[in-house]
Amino acid sequence: MKPIDYREIDGGLPFYSLVAAIGVFVLAALGAAFYMEHNGHWVTGMSNQIVWGTPHVFAVFLIVAASGALNVASISSVFGKSMYKPLARLSGLLAITLLVGGLAVLVLDLGHPDRLIVAMTYYNFKSIFAWNIILYTGFMAVVAIYLWMMMERKMNRFTKVAGIAAFLWRLILTTGTGSIFGFLVARQAYDAAIMAPMFIIMSFSFGLAIFILVLMGLYRWSQRPLGDTVLMRLKNLLGVFIAAVLYFVTAYHLTNLYGTENLGVERFILLDGGIYTQLFWIVQIGIGSLLPLLLIYGPTGKSRLWIGIACLLTIVGGLAQIYVIIIGGQAYPMELFPGKEVTSSFFDGIVAEYSPSLPEFILGIGGVALALAATVVGTRVLRFLPESLADDQVDPHHAAS
Amino acid sequence: MSEESGIDVYRRRFLSGAAKVAAGMVVAPGVIVHEVSQARPADQPVTDAVRWGMLIDSNKCAEGCNDCVQACNDEHGLTGHDRPATDAQWIRKVTIRDKQTGHTQTLPLLCQHCEHPPCVDVCPTGASFKRSDGIVLVDKHICIGCRYCMMACPYKARSFIHEDLQDQLPHSPRGKGTVESCNFCVHRVDTGRTPACVEACTNEHHDAMLFGDLNDSNSAISQALEQYSSRQIRADLQLNTGVRYRGI
Question: How far, in Å, CA of A342 to CA of A328, rounded?
Fold first, then answer.
């Protein structure tokens, strides 16, 4: 195997144009956040019933995907698969940028984004949220050190140690993210230990889908060779992760369906929940899981275009899944008086209405844009991308075969 | 002789009963005065010697009556914007109907001031906190507006301030972008008064709400709780709520 030659992507007009194009979405998101904060949250679709809305869907998606994007690096450093080594730097970079994008959305949706310093200085250690603040910032630091070990020749010998630390950290981090919901005893749709491992496997899937798309996009844009060997490995792995998410979703719903007390919420999500039922079956399961599996393992699995589409559908399915979890979980009324019908002036006992407002959506998209912009700028200023990922570069057996 | 002794017994019972009633009449106002006199001097810290609680009798809660809600809104300046989905409600009237029997009841629902409040557990900054005397509050200065407490509260007792506020009342400061809920009228309780909702209910002679110290076995609320069966909403969560209900 030849030594890997990493190089920054080219600057100049195409680079600045790309950054500017993505930057427009970031600026729009800042405008949307200012609009929501200035007027107050009543201008959004959120209410006292649906307290977390579309921004949280994007934020949680990006945060979950961030830890998953690190997988490629972990497979290389922790599990010693040399084929993934050339991809490890981009994997680490994406892990940081996606997290930054997600956190930015989360912070900008707070009632008081100006009190970020309060969140960083006052801690209630019984709160998983407080732990997550430490886990998220710590993750960025750990991955930054990991990248340094990988990118600084003198430090290369510490790569494995740093890689193991980052891998363990990401497992804890996603456990923390899943537990935001898993620890909520109040609501029927949450309060389940399976949330933590399910979020970990979701992160594998979403993170890898984004990684493959960004990899294909950057190599096409910078006109560098990207061989089929790498891509076929990655897409097969994505298929396994998509199937694993399906398994966890099935286990979660089957467990809920067994207990009579949860039949109401299950009926709501699976049968008569309107938009949430449609999002679950059509988007999350249909076009977000089964279709990508078909595209990946069917005859289309050799086509880059179809692999790209499969990744995109996985991302769309992932967003739908988190939408159903976060918003569907809140829309279903809390069981205050089991066996009774409840009515009040405060929307007790009825399915809460929610439709995403434009500013919320723009803020969410802005988080994605921020992650992408930071990734592009990162690859411009530092050597994240190998000059070539052609088959003879990455596969030690390629010449022989 | 035996007949005489029977009369004596009767007489004794009557007299002792009368004495008890008399004593009750003398002491009861004293109990009430005693409760009111528990007003904590301003320079004394709050202690857990007291645990404030409320007993709501849904049998006495009149359908269509909204006095407690109105009193709360007036007391805390909760003026709505005709946007029910985002307007704050600290206390609300809830009607419950048994799916099997059709039996209908009405009751006020407010922050239950749990001994183990989930909102306090999940709050990242500690802005949601429980005072030593059991009152659950939000420190509006360190609330970052993340709404995790609203996700965690099993009683849907909390509201987020969705817009700018005008004409705030000095004794009940609020803040756009923060979360708030019933605070048991802490400003009144600290000066020996009862919460506004309870006062309104009593003034209208409904007497469906009783407020007092759960730690004081002589308090009217403790005695009522000892005498009658009561329950907590979502008792399965074992939060040991400060608000208890009769008749549900």
Answer: 19
